[in-house]
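Long-time lurker, first post. I've been practising inverse folding by hand and with some scripts of my own, and I keep getting stuck on stretches where the structure tokens seem ambiguous. Below is the full token string for one chain I'm working on. Before anyone asks, I'm not after the true native sequence, just a reasonable design that respects the backbone. If someone could post their per-position residues I'd love to compare against what I wrote down in my notebook.
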């Protein structure tokens, strides 16, 4: 066991990823968003009789509302910056669930198809590391929180270190599954990698959700927070060319189906014996 642990440590170190964020995804520096505003016709058509004025005003008011796009049932409303960050954490937590279940199966001696595991690791690298961490947190969130000072600022260096460590483990996972099959000699080291990754990121994401993001939000005005939400949307489109979150949800859902993890009921705690 000691030899396996030493081996996996050496593999992690030789696969350390300290790349420029641009190697993972496009890295926009200045993002512009055009806003299309409707123009109101203020032309006066002449004086009308007093009795007709009220009716015309009411008609114009109704027409103004009719011109606005209405929210249909099921249509997505605007997502704020903090909600955006936390729902992205939801996708990453579903990746962690896949890793946890895979570690259990590896320890049970089951032969596993590496393809779903590879897709999960690639999703975490592209969506979690290359986009969420590098382009949002490390550029826009962490510097602001660190400048604000206080307890939240004290954890930023640790969070950055954990990002780097996570990228090392992701590189190792992808290296193992790229072989096309998981060898018996790789099963235990890979299970340990999954467990250490999950343990770290559960604590990591929980601290961000409950400490870092609230401080970041409090440090911004309502206008600044709204602008950051728009900027995050721009970065998402620049990076993925479409709705990256929706696509990530579809990808992890397909992985869960392939591994038999799609039914939420199976995770319900059993009743007391």
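-- Answer (accepted) --
I ran through it position by position. Result:
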């Amino acid at each position: 066991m000691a030899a396996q642990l030493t081996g996996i440590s050496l593999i992690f170190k030789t696969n350390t990823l300290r790349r420029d964020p641009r190697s993972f995804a496009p890295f926009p520096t200045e993002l512009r968003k055009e806003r299309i505003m409707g123009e109101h016709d203020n032309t006066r058509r002449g004086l009308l009789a007093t009795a007709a004025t009220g009716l015309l005003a009411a008609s114009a008011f109704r027409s103004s509302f009719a011109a606005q796009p209405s929210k249909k049932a099921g249509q997505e409303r605007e997502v704020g910056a903090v909600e955006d960050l936390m729902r992205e954490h939801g996708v990453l937590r579903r990746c962690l669930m896949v890793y946890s279940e895979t570690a259990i199966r590896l320890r049970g001696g089951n032969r596993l198809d590496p393809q779903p595991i590879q897709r999960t690791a690639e999703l975490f690298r592209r969506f979690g590391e290359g986009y969420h961490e590098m382009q949002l947190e490390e550029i826009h969130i962490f510097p602001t929180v660190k400048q604000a000072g206080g307890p939240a600022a004290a954890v930023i260096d640790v969070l950055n270190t954990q990002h780097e460590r996570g990228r090392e483990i992701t590189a190792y996972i992808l290296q193992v599954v790229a072989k096309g099959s998981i060898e018996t000699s790789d099963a235990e080291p890979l299970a340990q990698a999954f467990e250490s990754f999950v343990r770290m990121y559960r604590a990591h994401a929980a601290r961000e959700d409950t400490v870092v993001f609230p401080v970041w939000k409090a440090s911004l005005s309502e206008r600044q927070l709204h602008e950051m939400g728009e900027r995050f949307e721009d970065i998402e489109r620049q990076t993925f060319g479409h709705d990256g979150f929706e696509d990530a949800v579809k990808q992890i859902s397909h992985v869960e189906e392939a591994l038999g993890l799609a039914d939420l009921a199976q995770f319900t705690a059993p009743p007391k014996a």
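A couple of notes from the structure itself: Residues 1-75 have pLDDT under 50 and may be disordered. DSSP finds nine helices and no strands in the chain. Happy to go over any region you disagree with.
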